[in-house]
Design goal:
alpha+beta; paralog of FGE (formylglycine-generating enzyme); five-stranded antiparallel sheet; four-stranded mixed sheet; 9 helices; 27% helix; elongated
């Protein structure tokens, strides 16, 4: 008995082409041989051949899917089921939302403590705030409940392919919010705005070819049509997006580190067609689909450096001025600059002459360290001249006497912690514009066309406010900033109703 082989997509496509050519030839031969036959006979023959071809191709495709599925250990995957929705008796659900008739229930794999804790957090939010798990608005946009919580944002230094902007730090979401279950689709965009900007109109596909500013106009129209205050519906913040995507995980992807599981969760160019099909793959623990892959998604957060203060050095964003090794080294002033990102800097006793009076150091403005850290007036006989910028190397330093200095945006790396600049200590300039990249929004989630490494939970992209792309879309967020936990008595009644609801589901399952 021959061993069944696993066919690649390329082999399948080749087989399809060969079979089509073969069938075409067979059909032509049959037609020539039966010229005198009736038209009915010819049609029957053609139909039979086409059925044969269809069955052959179906077998090849199913064999390919079977081969792919053998790579995934299904015991490690989330599973889902549709159940009747639970509406807490004491509810704080906004009037623009209603509970869905059915809700997606997440069944985590065995031995997944973090995922179980996430589901408990979500359940407690239902009880404490009186909010259904899954809701929708009049435009058919479905949302999942995301509870308040703490998490580690960014990535550890050991994570492969991380970038320098992904500093791992503690973060917290202090309010519940609803996040759209899927990306916003073209049909919804058109219903709200009467326009579909997608270059390839497909109503049930995610909106694309929109800019950040286009998204703002969409939410303005959505809030107006629902008679809500502006910003009631909005893009998720970067923090909300990562917290919701991680769903309690601390790994590069919400499903873990094992890339063999990726085809079950991530819509990418390697594993899925059609790439936008709803429910094609599995959600995360919060019940959100396509947060990895499929479409990159706009957030409402402008770019900034995580947890990096003005007096800390930010590699690639601040500008190196002087490595401190050789005073007045004009040729190679930064060749030995060794300050690590987020090193603490000081301004004590460091001054520059603000020649253009803009409050910031610019090249060609001299820098010195004052002997008296509180005296901003340069005295050549007393102070240490550090940097002359574009000044002539032979300029007499006494010509700078009595110039007034400012601290401005200069810092130095106080290695010996003596609160004053010493030879060998690097100097840099803080660049506020670069730290925040004015005009650039953070985009999250890897697009279908990107490598999986670019779909990590912590991966950050920047995008201009007006730029558009077929690979960028969005999902809607409904933050509930002002919502407070219900009184304990009402929480108790919500909990009792929840327990009764769960018992009813168990009883129905037993009857089946």
């Amino acid at each position: 008995m021959k061993k069944k082989t696993k066919l690649s997509e390329e082999q399948i496509k080749l087989a399809e082409k060969l079979k089509i050519k073969l069938v075409d030839k067979q059909l032509r031969d049959q037609l020539k041989a039966t010229k005198k036959s009736s038209n009915k006979t010819i049609l029957i023959l053609g139909a039979l051949l086409l059925v044969t071809l269809s069955l052959a191709l179906s077998f090849l495709k199913s064999d390919s899917k079977a081969a792919q599925s053998t790579l995934i250990d299904k015991t490690k995957l989330i599973s889902t089921s549709l159940q009747a929705s639970f509406s807490p008796p004491f509810s704080q659900l906004p009037v623009d939302l209603k509970s869905t008739l059915k809700q997606t229930i997440i069944h985590p794999p065995h031995n997944t403590t973090e995922m179980n804790e996430t589901l408990i957090l979500q359940r407690e939010c239902i009880i404490k705030y009186g909010l259904p798990l899954e809701v929708e608005n009049k435009f058919g946009m479905k949302f999942r409940l995301i509870p308040p919580g703490q998490f580690l944002m960014g990535s550890p230094q050991t994570e492969a392919n991380r970038t320098s902007t992904e500093l791992l730090h503690e973060s917290e979401i202090k309010y519940p919010f609803y996040l759209q279950k899927f990306e916003t689709i073209q049909k919804t965009w058109q219903a709200v705005t009467n326009k579909n900007p997608a270059k390839t109109p497909k109503p049930d596909f995610p909106i694309q070819d929109v800019s950040f500013n286009d998204c703002l106009f969409f939410f303005q129209a959505l809030n107006t049509q629902l008679n809500l205050a502006q910003h009631s519906y909005t893009l998720p913040s970067e923090k909300e997006w990562e917290y919701a995507t991680r769903a309690g995980s601390h790994t590069p992807w919400h499903f873990g580190k094992d890339l063999k599981l990726a085809p079950a969760y991530v819509i990418s160019k390697y594993n899925a067609f059609p790439r936008y099909e709803k429910n094609h793959l599995l959600p995360n623990a919060f019940g959100l689909f396509n947060t990895h892959g499929n479409m990159q998604e706009f957030t409402r957060s402008p770019f900034f450096i995580y947890e990096c203060k003005k007096d800390q050095y930010a590699h690639s964003w601040d500008f190196k001025i002087y490595d401190g090794d050789h005073p007045e080294d004009i040729v190679l002033p930064r060749n030995n600059f060794k300050v690590e990102t987020r090193s603490q800097g000081r301004q004590t006793g460091l001054y520059f002459h603000d020649a253009n009076n803009d409050g910031l150091w610019t090249n060609s403005e001299i820098i010195w360290a004052a002997k008296d850290p509180l005296d901003p007036i340069y005295k050549s006989s007393r102070d240490t001249f550090i940097w002359r910028g574009d000044q002539n190397k032979d300029t007499d330093l006494t010509s700078f006497d009595k110039l007034r200095g400012v601290n401005g945006n200069l810092y130095y790396n106080d290695k010996n912690a003596d609160l004053s600049w010493s030879p060998g200590e690097e100097i840099w300039g803080y660049n506020e514009w670069k730290r925040y990249k004015s005009g650039y929004q953070i985009v999250r989630g890897g697009a279908w066309s990107l490598e999986l490494k670019y779909s990590r939970s912590a991966m950050r992209f920047t995008h201009s406010n007006n730029d558009k792309g077929s690979y960028i879309g969005m999902r809607s967020c409904r933050p509930l900033y002002k919502l407070k936990e219900l009184p304990l008595e009402q929480q108790s009644k919500n909990r009792a109703a929840w327990d009764s609801f769960q018992e009813g589901l168990t009883a129905d399952k037993t009857l089946e």
